[in-house]
Amino acid sequence: MWGPHLLLGVLVVYTFGRVRCQFQYPTETAGKQYQVPQPPTYKPPTNPAITGIPNINTVLVKPPPFLKLLVAVLYGYKINRRIKPTPPIKKCPEGWFRRDQRCYFFSDKKTSWYGAESLCRLKGGYLAIPDTEEENNFLKETSTSEEVRLQGAPIPHFSRWIGLRSLDGSTIQKIITNELLTFTDFVPGHLASRGLTSEPCVHMDYTSSFLWKVEKCHRGFLYICERHLHFEFKYIV
Q1: Dihedral of CA 110/76/63/194: which sign?
Q2: What pTM did the predictor assign?
Q3: How far apart are CA 160 and CA 203, in angstroms?
Q4: Which of 95, 101, 114, 134 is geometrically suited to a Cys-Cys bond with 76, CB 3.0 to 4.6 A?
Q5: What are 26-77's pLDDT values in tens digits?
Q6: What b/e readout covers 140-166, taking b as 16+ CB neighbours within 10 angstroms?
Q7: Is 55 inside any structural domain?
């Protein structure tokens, strides 16, 4: 049943191939090498009167601050939704420092405050919250020793984000609990001169012996993570 159809198909293909092989270029090109026409090459306009066109390299390398802030917030929210409860641990992970019943991680890479918060959650903790003078002194001393260790690294400054920020533009709260601060270590007069409306995130400033300062949250700083030993930690979103 399929034999005649198959034979007819082979015949058609063979005949078509013979016709294509016998095809000759037009007489005006006989004896000359045939040149396949090429599409015209696009050339950008060079009229100096055309202005106002943004430089794509500048747009990609230096995105607007509001765009970086939006991306950081969305990324942090996505990460927060994926975080699972952190199981109890008996000792601090490798690369963490222990003090009492808590572990601390001092990063050697910079990120925004939102990025630091998300990275700390992925590590099973949260941005460090200095609740007491003793804990704050430990963070300052370790930050100083880490600054010495990283002197050869290509890091222009060694300030570190901590888990404090302003939600209302007038007061500063702790992350996780949103409680008001019971201990502070700001540079004297800093809050009065800077305010919290546009710079609501807190970092330990290395140019001021790691006293606290507020800064725009999208700025890139090192950061400190904190996690507890012996009990489960769950970040409530």
Answers
A1: negative
A2: 0.62
A3: 5
A4: 114
A5: 444 444 444 545 555 555 555 545 455 555 444 445 556 556 555 554 545 4
A6: bebbeebbeeeeeeeeeebbbbbbbbb
A7: no
